[in-house]
Amino acid sequence: MHKTVLLQISMDENFSEASIKEQITKSAALVSEGRYLITIFEAPNSWDSRLPVEAFIVSQVLGPIENRNEEWEFFGNGAIRSYTSNGITFKLKTTYQWNILRRKGDKPYSRRHEVSEAFLKKNTVPVADPVFTRDVANNVWHLKQSDIFSRIIARFSSLLTWQDEEFMHIHMGKVISIIGRTKLSLTEDLVGIPTKSEYLWNSGDTLFS
Fold first, then answer.
1. Is 166 helix (H, G, I), strand (E, B) or coil?
2. Mean pLDDT, the chain, integer
3. Where do runs of H (alpha helix) occur along the chain?
4. Among 28, 95, 163, 165, who pairs with 2 as Cys (CB 3.0-4.6 Å)?
5. Nearest CA among 38, 23, 40, 34 for reference residue 1
6. CATH number of the domain to which 54 belongs
7. Domain that holds residue 199
8. Main-chain dihedrals φ then ψ at residue 92, nearest 5 degrees
9. Other CB atoms closer than 10 Å to residue 188's CB: what's the count?
């Protein structure tokens, strides 16, 4: 069975270069050909010195730049901003960074000719939904803090895998295997509202608006 892995790296007392690399190595070994290793970790809220987690992820799986691992390729990165609400306004709670690496092999969409029309329809994503066009389709997501990892898993699994494929969530050594997911629903998600801002020269003159 095809397997995609989402590794959630926590900034706990065991947060060290050795523990991070060990988690990455073990998680990468579980990913099947053509599927993905997704890593998520909390981004710092200040400019304090922190371990370069993204660099560890890339170097541990892809290898040194002079001798890249031919079994893997870089796929993408981005951020997730979570918000709490008092019922009227939303307040930024946490920012997470994510990185995706793909093990080489047949890409998930190559299965589209092998499945039934009914199964294909079940796996479609709501690309016309305002939440999709303004949030999901970008590499910075905005989500409610409550039950956030369920929403993150729903999005990544719907965008990158088929419902009958295994999606594994690994956190602090605990492995949760998810199979038979439902179709992605965005009805409870946040949708951005664009606003118009003036851009000014230092002189105060309007550059454009």
1. strand
2. 90
3. 17-30, 53-62, 117-122, 130-131, 148-160
4. 165
5. 34
6. 3.30.110.20
7. 3-208
8. -60, 130
9. 11
Whether the CB-CB separation of 78 and 141 falls below 8 Å is answered with yes
| Residue 110: pLDDT band with limits 50, 70, 90 | very high
**Those residues with Cβ within 8 angstroms of residue 127's Cβ, 6 or more apart along the chain or in another chain:** 133, 137
Residue 157, both tokens: 């699994």
In 3D space, the residue among 81, 100, 90 whose CA is nearest the CA of residue 161 turns out to be 100
User: pTM (2 decimals)?
Assistant: 0.88
Q: What is the pLDDT of residue 51?
A: 87
C-alpha span between 151 and 165 (Å, rounded): 18
Identify residue 105 by its one-letter amino acid code.
Answer: G
pLDDT tens digit sequence for 12-23: 766 889 999 999
Residue carrying the six token digits 């590499």: 139
Q: Residue written as tokens 């997730």?
A: 80
E-assigned strands of the chain? 3-9, 36-42, 72-85, 90-103, 140-144, 166-171, 174-178, 199-200, 206-208
How many domains are there within the chain? 1
Q: Note the maximum CA span of the chain.
A: 63
Q: Angle formed by the axes of helices 17-30 and 53-62, to 10°?
A: 50
